[in-house]
Amino acid sequence: MSNPTKPQVAFYWCASCGGCEEAVVDLADGVLAVVDAVDIVFWPVALDFKRSDVEARPDGSIAVAFVNGAIRTSEQEEMAHMLRRKAQFLIAFGACSHLGGIPGLANLWDRESVLRGSYSEAPSVVNPEGTLPQESWQEDGRRVTLPAFRDTVRTLDQVVEVDYYIPGCPPTPKLLMDAVQAILSGALPPRGSVLAPDIALCDQCHLKATKPDRLLLASFKRPHQVLIDPETCLLSQGLLCLGPATRAGCEALCPHGNMPCTGCFGPTSRVHDVGAKLVSAVGSAFDASSPDAIEAVLSTIPDPVGTFYRYSLPASRLRRKVSQAAPAEAAQ
Amino acid sequence: MEEQRVGTVNGQEPTIVAFFCTWCTYTAADLAGTSRMKYPPNVRIIRVMCSGRVDPQFVVEAFAQGADGVLIGGCHPGDCHYVEGNYKALRRIALLKRVLRTMGIEDERLRLEWISASEGDKVARVISEMVGAVRRLGRLDLPAKRRGWDAEVLPHGGPTEALAAAAAPDGR
Ligand code: SF4
Ligand code: SF4
Ligand code: FES
After folding, report:
1. From the CA of A301, how many Å to the nearest CA of chain B?
2. What is the gyration radius of the CA atoms in chain B, in angstroms?
3. pTM for this model (two decimals)
4. Per the domain annotation, does B127 fall within a domain?
5. I want to staple B32 with a disulfide (CB 3.0 to 4.6 A). Which of A33, A95, A176, B37 is the partner?
6. CATH assignment of A8-102+152-185?
7. Could you give the maximum distance between any two Cα atoms of chain A, in Å?
8. Does residue B76 sit at the A interface (CB-CB below 8 Å)?
9. Which domain holds residue B50?
10. Is the ipTM above a cut-off of 0.85?
11. Shortest Cα distance from A113 to chain B (angstroms)?
C-alpha cells in the first residue's frame, strides 16, 4: 500500500527499447535509497499496478512521473495526457522521450510503409495474405482492438507539457540520481531545463587536449575502417564524433570506449537544429574547394540524416520526411 | 493587391528567402533595382556579410517557417572578402542538399549562386528561374504541412480540460 508521507513516483514507457528501464535498475545499490525516499505507485515493467490504479488517483497527487520512449500510438498519447494530469512534475526520461530517439528515425517513412515493411516485405516474414494489424477486429462475436499507429513519431513535449528533460540513450544512473535528489530537495533549475550541464561533450572528454582548433580532414571514416588511436581526439582521426555539438553529462562514455559520440544527449541550448548545425560543422572540417572534390569527401558520409539526426529527427525543425500525399487525409 | 498576395503564408504564390552577401550579390540586387530590371516579387532578401555566414540552420529555419525556396548569393570563387567563406558555403550546401533530399525537399528548392556586384542582370535571371522552378514543384508550405501532420493527435496541452470534461459523470 502506498505510504502517504512519501512522495509518489511513477515510471512509464512508450516507444522505447527498454534500455531506460534498465538505467533505473542500474542504480544498483542506489535504487534502495530511492525506494526508501519515495513510494513507487506505477512502473509497468517491474510492478503490478494497472492503468486503472493510476486513473483512480487524484489529479496532481503523483509527485513525479518519469516517461521514457517516443509517442507513436494513440495509447502512448493517452497515457502521456493521463500522467500529465496526475503528476506535478512530468519528466521526459531518455533520448526518445526528449528528442524522438532511434524510433524517431521512422519519420523518414510513414504509417503505411512502416506497416508494409514490417508485416509483409521483411525477408523474415511469411504473410501471403498480406494481413496487417487492424485497430478493431470482430471474430466469433468478440471484438478486439489495438491502439492506433500514428503516421508520425513525436517527442513527449509534442503531445503534452514537459517540466524537465533527462537526456541520454539511456540516461546514466548518476544523472537519474542527481535528478531525483534535485526534485526531492526542491533545488531545481528553471522549468523546461535539460538536467545535464549546458556545455559541449568535448569539455568532459579526456581527449580534448589533442583536438586541433582547425580540422582539415581528407575523408570521414567509420569505426570499422580504422585502427583507432586511443590517445588522440577521434574527430581528428576522421571519425565523425559528435562531441562538439552534443551536451555533456555522460562524461564522454563513448570516447572512453574508443567509439565516437553519436549524440544521444542531444544538443546544448545554443543549438537550434542539431542536423543543420552538424552540416555546418562538417562543412568547416574538411578542405576541398571544387564540387567534385567536395562530393568525393562527402561520399564518405553514407547516411547524413541517420548520422546527424540519429536521436533527434522528430525534434528537428523539419520533423519528418515530406511526402507528396496529403498527410492530414491519410491520418483519418 | 500584389503586395499582400505575395508572402502570405497561405497564399498560392511561392516565397523565396534569399541570403545575399553584402559585398557582391546584395550590391548586384541593388543595381538590378536602380537599373529597373524586372524580376518576380516573390523573393525576400536578407543581407549577410558573406555567404560563409549562412548557417545551414538559417536555411532549415526558413523552410520551417514557410519558405518554398532558399537562394544564397555569394562572391565568385577567389573573390570572397573573407578569402574562403564562399568555399565553406559550397561545402555546406552540398551536404545540406543531401540532408534535404532525404527529408523529401527537392534540390531545386535550394540554390547557391556566385553573383558579383556588377551582375544585376544575373540576379534578375536567377530569381526568375528559381521562382519558375519552385512554382513548377508547388508550394512546400511546411507550417500547413505540420498542421496536417498534427491532425492525428489531440491538441497540445488542451486535453487536460477536455478529458476531465469527458470523464465528468454529468457530462459537462
Ligand atoms: S573525441 Fe569527440 S568528444 Fe572527445 S574531444 Fe574529440 S570530438 Fe570531442
Ligand atoms: S558519448 Fe555521446 S553517444 Fe555516447 S553516451 Fe555520451 S552523449 Fe551519448
Ligand atoms: S564576402 Fe561575398 S561570399 Fe564571402
Report:
1. 9
2. 20
3. 0.90
4. yes
5. B37
6. 3.40.50.700
7. 71
8. no
9. 16-144
10. yes
11. 15
